[in-house]
Every structure is written in structure tokens, then in C-alpha cells.
Amino acid sequence: MSPPVLVRPRPVHRAADLLAAYLPGSFYYSSARGSLLADGVHATVRAHHGTRAHAAAEVLDAAAAAGLVEPVVTGAIGFRPDSETSLVVPAVVRRAGAPTADADAPPASWSTSWSITPKPESAGYADAVRRALALIDDGELRKIVLARCLELTADGPVPVPSLLARLVRADPAAQAFAVDVSAPGDPAPRTLVGASPELLVSRHGGEVVANPLAGSLPRVADEAENRRRIAALLSSEKDRAEHAHVRTQVAEVLGRFCVDLAVPTEPVVIGTPTMWHLSTRITGRVANPADPGSSALALAEALHPTPAVCGVPTARARTAIADLESEDRGYYAGLVGWTDLYGDGEWSVTIRSAEVCGRTVRLFAGAGIVAGSDPSAELAETSAKFRTLLRALGLEGAVA
């Protein structure tokens, strides 16, 4: 008897329509490969034993057996091993092609009055960088990523659909997302929303892609200066060393799952509307696409956290982050995305993101600290990375 033919879903909607249809509580994810909008909860994924990928595979199989057509697991996982998760099998999933720069987006309609509280203040972040450099000098770490937080409070509720639409319209090639991450005790629904430039891993028909980023400079309006910055990134010994940590670890992890792994030896520079990043696009093919242990979520769990958001060595860096950072990262620097019944899916690193709850918006941005890092330069890098969300909120230039 011949094995069943896998017929994967095809987009049947317009990307702009899915974006316009998003409401808080839905799950939205878009990238250069396409858009996905999911609603309702058929089942919740809880990893009582094994990995979250193992639990997701079991729930997907049960959903298919119950008659749900083309079930998908969607959601987000926090930075720490014991962090919150929000993985569900939605009741309804709609797909479309990739969004475009002229995607229909509602005009900004939120408050024009904000209070902004840095956590920590600039001096506190610079001091944390100096303490991290001491750990590097002592040989405990080779790299660590330190983040800081901005807490913004508006004089009225922040409309998440408008914020999401502006993020997608500003950079349709980004991995844009909006996920309900409400937790008991929240005063209002809480949404994780963002536009990440960093693909953690995707799997489509067994073909695997990861695109780690590390080594960054702000983008400016002057194109001649941008060309200078691109050249500076490519020639920077410090930035290339920071990037090499990430590329090496991602390639090592994917090498456990993939055959025909292709790892470029030289990074390239990619741009977002606010930043330039050193980038390496790593590709491969899983040996057995039907194995739940090589699903997109399984690969994402194996990769997380990469040195792009944590450090080297991983365990020591994660401990140091808890000691040096004043705020719990929550979902920041975790992963967000989807995996389907066949193991295909996309997961991005949860950066350039915010958690929105009523009138409050919490943003995080981080910088990679290696030998030779300068505290003031790392502080400036985090300020530049905040611009993605601040620009979408109409607050660009509000933070130095």
C-alpha cells in the first residue's frame, strides 16, 4: 500500500486582508514566505514530559484524529528554561502570501502623551556592561548579551492592531508577529508584538534555513554614511568575532539534525529600516522529515538560546544575565512562530518586540558584549534597536 500523499495548505487569502482582520487574542505571523492568522483555541500544548516539541507533536496528532483540518501549533516561548509559554492549536487558521510595503494599515490612533521609564537608567546599564567585561577578562565568558528595558505608559489603551500594521508596513520582510500571552493577574489582555529581523529556524518539506545575526550598527539617513558603516561592520574584528560565536554554535546544533549543511565562511550585511547586521544564512536538509524530533519546533528548541541573545558558554552566560539585568526578560529573546502537522514551520528570535497590556508597553533591547566592547557604544546600540518599536509608536527620538 502506497504511503499517503502529504497535501500542504495553500494560501487562499490576501496578506493585507489577514493583517486587517487581526484582533487582540488572535495569532499573527508573517515573513517573506507568507502570512498566517489563527483564531480560537482547539487545544493547549503543555510539556508535562519531554520537550515542548514532543508535546506539540502529540497534540497535533490528537487534533488531526479529532477531525481538525491541517492543525498547527502557534505561540511563543520565553527566554529562560522555566519561562512562560503560550503554545496552542488554534481552531481556525488562514494563510496568505507575504505582505508588501503598501499593505493596508490603519492610521495611528493612540495617545500622544507618554511617560517613559528606563530600567535600568543609562548609567546602570553601562555599569552592567563593565561588570560583564570583568567576567570576560577573568575567562568566565567569551560573550554575553545584556539587555535593558523601557516601560512606556500612555494616557489611553494602546491599539495593538494599529501597532502591528505599522510594523508590518515598515518592514514587510521581517518576521512580524502578535501573540496573546495573557497571564493570571494581568490587568488587561497582554500581547507580544514585534518585527524580528532574525529567523531562528524554518523548515519546509525537510529543507532547513537558519539566519543568525550578530554584530550591528545603526542605520542613518545619509547613504554615504550607511555605506561606510556597512564596510566598517565587514572589517570590524570585534563584530566579526561576535558573529562567529553565533554562526559556529548554530551550525554545530543543526549539524546534529541535518545533512548537506551549508555554512558560508564569510558573513554579509543585511539591513532593516533602523539597523545594519552581520548575517549568515545557513541551510541544510533533515534526514527524516517525518521524525517529530526534527520538526521546526524541535530544531528551534535545540538552537535556543543562541549566542545572539545569550552568550558563550551558554549556561554561564544565562546565569550572568540573571545577575546583571535588573528586569526579567519574559518573552524577550525567546522564540515565536508556528509548526504544522508535518513538522514544517518557522520560528524567529523574539527581538524588536514589546509586551502591550492596556496602557503599558514594555520594550527590551540588547547588545553583545565581547572583549573590547565599549559601554557607551553598547548603550547606543540598544537605543538604536529600540527605534523599531518606538518609530511604530510615534516616539522615535524619545530615547537617547
TrEMBL record:
Q: For the Chorismate-utilising enzyme C-terminal domain, which residue ranges apply?
A: 123-385
Asked if Isomerase is a keyword of the record, the answer is yes
Q: Which reaction does it catalyse?
A: chorismate = isochorismate
Alphabetically sorted, this entry's keywords are: Isomerase
Q: What is its EC number?
A: 5.4.4.2
Q: Which PANTHER family match?
A: ISOCHORISMATE SYNTHASE ENTC
Q: What is this protein called?
A: isochorismate synthase
**Gene3D superfamilies to which the protein is assigned, alphabetical:** Anthranilate synthase
MF (Gene Ontology): isochorismate synthase activity
